[in-house]
């Protein structure tokens, strides 16, 4: 048995788990505050939430900076850690994949269970991250080989050198083309991946971008604005340029579809997206902007249009789930257990 902890924030961690779990070398139990997703094969333990109080203003939530989220006296925290402990005792898993939680890494390790920890880009040199990295037997970075120093800037080599850089994990199959050729449509097509909205991709900002690019067709994908699509892959496949915040999963999906991008980093903990954008500016098929612009949309789109999106093959080659599985298999094998 292998456990897979899925952080409940957003949908990206779940999409990644759904992509990686089928490749793992044993039955996989999902551990998450999220409800069991359709299509999950294997058991699922839905955990209580640990953030349901009206306010945590007066609570000790970090144990004096040692951890990220352990609100003192929180019944949900007590229940969720008890549920994970009970599951470990009941199943004696060969390994637990954690995406992402320092506290779950440490909890599993305190039970003597090997941990494979995934992390995101960013400035993760704080004490909780260092504790989480140290508690994991293996560390996985879902980014291209050689980019760990760029995507985890300042991290001590004793942790950075342990990362298996497996490449980006996309839920969509990668396209086979190695060189991007702009479409022959008379009007180029821009797709905006706004996700849940906010972070500058407001209705007003989107309207301004469309007004500045009358020679472009636009598709806006936003759950907040009511423009989401049941099949995002089909929309991305018809794009000439994608505009997005560089979250790990959105970026992986654009790379898998081999479409050039306009990237606008949004504020995130540990500077995750700004660190990612800085790396992308170094020769990848992306035009990187500091913020959602008020002018200059036409120039940004046309600059991106002529980039060679075949370079995305080095970011996302479709084999990342198998590489993660190989790392986990090294822990779950009888030889490793001995």
Largest sheet geometry: 7 strands, parallel
Based on DSSP secondary structure assignment, what is the total number of beta strands? 12
Number of domains: 2
- Give the CA-based shape: globular
CATH class of the largest domain: Alpha Beta
Instruction: Summarize the helix and strand pattern as letters.
Output: EHEEHEHEHEHHEEHEHEHEHEHHH
- Give the CATH architecture of the largest domain: 3-Layer(aba) Sandwich
Alpha-carbon distance between the two ends: 16 Å
Give me the secondary-structure category. alpha/beta
Q: What is the helix fraction of residues, given as a range?
A: 25-40%
- Strand order of the biggest β-sheet: 3-2-1-4-5-6-7
CATH superfamily of the largest domain: Glycogen Phosphorylase B
Count of alpha and pi helical runs = 13
Organism: Nocardioides alpinus
Domain Glycosyl transferase family 28 C-terminal: 233-290
Pfam families: Glyco_tran_28_C (PF04101)
Protein name: Glycosyltransferase family 28 C-terminal domain-containing protein
What are the SSEs and their pairings?
Layout: E1 2-6, H1 12-20, E2 28-32, E3 44-46, H2 75-91, E4 95-99, H3 102-110, E5 115-118, H4 127-135, E6 138-141, H5 148-151, H6 157-160, E7 163-165, E8 189-195, H7 203-212, E9 217-222, H8 232-237, E10 241-244, H9 248-256, E11 261-263, H10 272-280, E12 286-288, H11 297-305, H12 320-332, H13 334-337
Parallel strand pairs: 1-2, 1-4, 2-3, 4-5, 5-6, 6-7, 8-9, 8-10, 10-11, 11-12
């Amino acid at each position: 048995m292998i456990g897979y902890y899925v952080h409940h924030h957003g949908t990206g961690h779940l999409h990644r788990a759904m992509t990686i779990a089928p490749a793992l070398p044993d039955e996989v139990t999902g551990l998450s505050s999220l409800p069991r997703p359709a299509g999950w094969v294997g058991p699922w333990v839905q955990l209580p939430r640990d953030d349901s109080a009206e306010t945590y203003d007066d609570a000790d939530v970090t144990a004096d900076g040692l951890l990220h989220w352990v609100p003192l006296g929180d019944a949900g925290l007590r229940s969720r850690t008890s549920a994970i402990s009970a599951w470990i005792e009941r199943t004696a898993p060969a390994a637990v994949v954690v995406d992402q939680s320092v506290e779950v890494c440490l909890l599993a390790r305190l039970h003597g269970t090997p941990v494979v920890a995934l992390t995101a880009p960013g400035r993760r040199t704080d004490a909780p991250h260092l504790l989480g990295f140290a508690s994991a037997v293996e560390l996985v970075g879902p980014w291209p080989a050689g980019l760990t120093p760029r995507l985890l800037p300042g991290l001590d080599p004793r942790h950075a050198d342990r990362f298996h850089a497996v490449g980006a994990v996309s839920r969509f199959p990668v396209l086979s083309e190695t060189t991007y050729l702009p479409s022959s449509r008379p009007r180029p097509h821009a797709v905006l991946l706004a996700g849940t909205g906010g972070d500058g991709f407001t209705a007003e900002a989107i309207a301004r971008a469309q007004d500045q690019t009358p020679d472009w067709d636009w598709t806006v994908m936003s759950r907040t604005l009511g423009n989401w699509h049941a099949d995002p892959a089909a929309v991305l496949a018809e794009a000439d340029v994608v505009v997005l915040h560089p979250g790990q999963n959105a970026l992986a999906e654009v790379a898998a579809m081999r479409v050039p991008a306009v990237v606008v980093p949004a504020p995130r903990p540990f500077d995750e997206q700004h660190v990612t954008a800085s790396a992308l500016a170094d020769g990848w098929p992306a035009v990187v902007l500091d913020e959602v612009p008020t002018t200059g949309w036409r120039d940004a789109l046309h600059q991106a249009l002529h980039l060679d999106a075949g370079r995305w093959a080095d970011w996302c080659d479709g084999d990342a789930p198998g590489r993660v599985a190989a790392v986990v298999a090294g822990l779950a094998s009888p030889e490793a257990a001995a």
